[in-house]
Fold this sequence. Notes:
Blueprint: E1 14-20, E2 30-31, E3 37-38, E4 46-47, E5 67-71, H1 75-84, E6 90-93, E7 102-109, E8 114-118, H2 121-124, E9 132-137, E10 151-152, H3 157-163, E11 166-168, E12 171-176, E13 178-181, E14 199-200, H4 206-211, E15 222-229, E16 235-246, E17 259-266, E18 271-275, H5 281-287
Parallel strand pairs: 12-18, 13-15
Antiparallel strand pairs: 1-5, 1-9, 2-3, 4-5, 5-8, 6-7, 6-9, 7-8, 10-17, 11-12, 14-17, 15-16, 16-17
Amino acid sequence: MANINLNEDQLVMQSVIGEIHSPQLSNPYRVSYDGTLKVYPSTGGITYNKRIGDYVCKMKADHVEPAVTIKNSSETANGALNTFSCIGNEAFVVSGDAKGEKGFVTGKHGGCEHVLIDFSREVMEKMVIGDKIQIRAFGCGLEFTNNSDIKIFNIDPNLLKKINPKFNGENLEFPVTHIVPAKIMGSGLGRDNVNRGDYDIQLFDEKTKKEFNLESLRFGDFVAITDADHSYGRIYRSGAVSIGVVVHSDCIISGHGPGVCTILTSTSGKISPVIDETSNLKKYFYEV
C-alpha cells in the first residue's frame, strides 16, 4: 500500500468571511412527506445542543445545521465563501465577545448557501447572531499526484492526511461509517458542480434505512455513495463511488434528508470504502 501524494504545495490559502446567520421563517408550517404539517427548527443560527458526532435522526427538526451557521450578505462574496471554504479549514471569530476563538469548517449546505463551523459549547455561549467569522480557505484545487482517476473536492489537505487513506494498487481504501445506495439520494441533484452545497439521503423507505443502518448517521460522518459520480455535478453511474461528509440533519420534506457534502469521487470506482464506525470529523478534529 502506497501513501497518498498530494499537490498541496501548489494550493493557495486565502481569507473568506461571513456572519453568523439568523434562522429565517415566513410560513411556520412544513408539509411532511406523508402530508402532515409540522413546525420545527431549521437552518441558520447558533445550534447550541447539536454538534459533529451527534445523531442526525429522531429530532423534532428539519435541515438543522450543527453548531454555527455563517453566510455573507454579498451574493458574490458568499459565492466565494461557499466555493473556497473546505471541510477542516480553520475558522476564527473576528468580532464580538468570542473574538480570537478558533473552530473548524464542517460542511456546506446548498439552497440556503450556508457554511457550517464547529465550536465548543463554551465558545458558542459567547457568540451572537451577526458575529463575523473568517476562514483560512485552503484545499480548492487539491489533487492526488499519483492517481488521476479520483477527484478531490471540499477538503483541507491536512484533514485528508489525518484520515490517512491508503492506496491498495490503484484503489484508494477510505474509512466510512456507512454505505449509501445512489437510489435514495435526493435534493441537490441537477447542479453542474459539487464545489459548493450538498445533496440529501432520503430516509423515507424503512426497508432501505434498516438494511444500510442509516438511522445511526451522525453529523460529521464520512459516508460512501455507491453508483454515484460527482465529477461534474451529481449523476447516477453504475460502478462509480463517491465519498462525502454528513452536514445537516434529517428532514421531513419529500426528497430531502441528511445532507452530504462531497470530498472524493471516482467515475471508474477506484475508491474502496472500508467500514469504520469511528470515521467522523469529531475524531479527526479533536481525538487524533
